[in-house]
Write a structure and sequence with these properties.
This is IclR family transcriptional regulator. There is one protein chain. It is built from ten helices and seven strands. The protein has helices spanning 3-10, 13-22, 34-41, 45-57, 74-85, 88-104, 146-154, 157-170, 172-191, 237-256, and strands at 61-64, 69-72, 107-114, 117-125, 195-196, 205-211, 220-228. Helix 7 packs across helix 9 and helix 8 (157-170) runs antiparallel to helix 9 (172-191).
Length: 259
């Protein structure tokens, strides 16, 4: 029996399919019809309706008569509460994040990386900040953000190369672009202690990211500061904002006993 077969045998297919339905929803797709869910999941109609009925019964989905589509149910919100509550990094970091965000009139984001996915777990808006506020729970781009590059550089080389090789098979130009950005990010980490976004995700926003040195429960935590390209603080990115963000991360690590 191969490792892949053994892994497949340990999975409950109905649960995997049910999760695939829930994962169709995001901040850009708040409402989906049965047809849209079939197209996104590739599930046969009878299977889809059986799973959707079950998800509605337990409150994970709800059918909205107003829009004649399915929407995420409150059970998902209930499930998110213990996830956020167990994240002690979030509780320790928030006051310092708010203080720094106010000082530099920017947005600070706390991001967690797990199983090759990056997710916002806290977003703090400083006084006067004009940066768009992403929702907690939203996925973060791996290739076009400072946090994505910091995470990829934290991986063992073979794991990082495997990710880049898979990306190159699907999107060769994107993989080539990311390799160049990773070379630059590696230099930034060495020289400054943070990575940069180069405004690749949003051309009007510049971001830097500082990762924690140690993982917690197999998760890597990353702290990002984002500000508009017209911010007067942008000129101090290397000399003030970056060092302050690094100090914040070190203080959180000390509070958690990671230093």
């Amino acid at each position: 029996m191969t490792p892949e077969t053994d892994n497949d045998n340990r999975l409950v297919s109905a649960l995997v399919r049910g999760m695939s339905i829930l994962q169709c929803f995001d901040t850009q797709r708040l409402e989906l019809s049965a047809k849209e869910l079939m197209d996104l999941t590739g599930l046969p109609k009878p299977t889809l309706f059986r799973l959707v009925d079950t998800l509605c019964e337990i409150g994970a989905l709800r059918y909205s008569e107003r829009v004649s589509k399915y929407v995420p149910g409150l059970t998902l919100l209930n499930l998110s509460a213990p996830v956020l509550a167990r994240m002690s990094v979030r509780q320790f970091a928030r006051p310092a994040m708010q203080e720094l965000a106010d000082h530099i009139e920017a947005q600070l984001q706390l991001i967690v990386a797990s199983q090759m996915r990056l997710t916002y777990v806290d977003v703090v808006q400083g006084r006067g900040s004009k940066v768009y506020r992403p929702e907690v729970g939203t996925h973060v781009s791996m290739s076009r953000t400072a946090s994505g590059r910091a995470f990829l550089l934290s991986l063992p080389e073979d794991q990082r190369e495997a990710y880049l090789s898979q990306l190159a098979e699907r999107e060769p130009e994107k993989a080539s672009f990311l390799r160049r950005r990773l070379d630059e990010a590696r230099q930034d980490l060495t020289q400054h202690g943070f990575t940069r976004s180069h405004a690749d995700l949003h051309r009007e926003v510049q971001s830097i990211c500082v990762p924690m040195q140690a993982t917690r429960d197999g998760e890597l935590w990353l702290f990002t500061a984002s500000m508009p390209v017209f911010s007067p603080h942008l000129k101090d990115l290397d000399t003030e904002v970056g060092p302050r963000l690094i100090t914040l991360v070190h203080n959180v690590e000390s509070s958690l006993g990671n230093s």
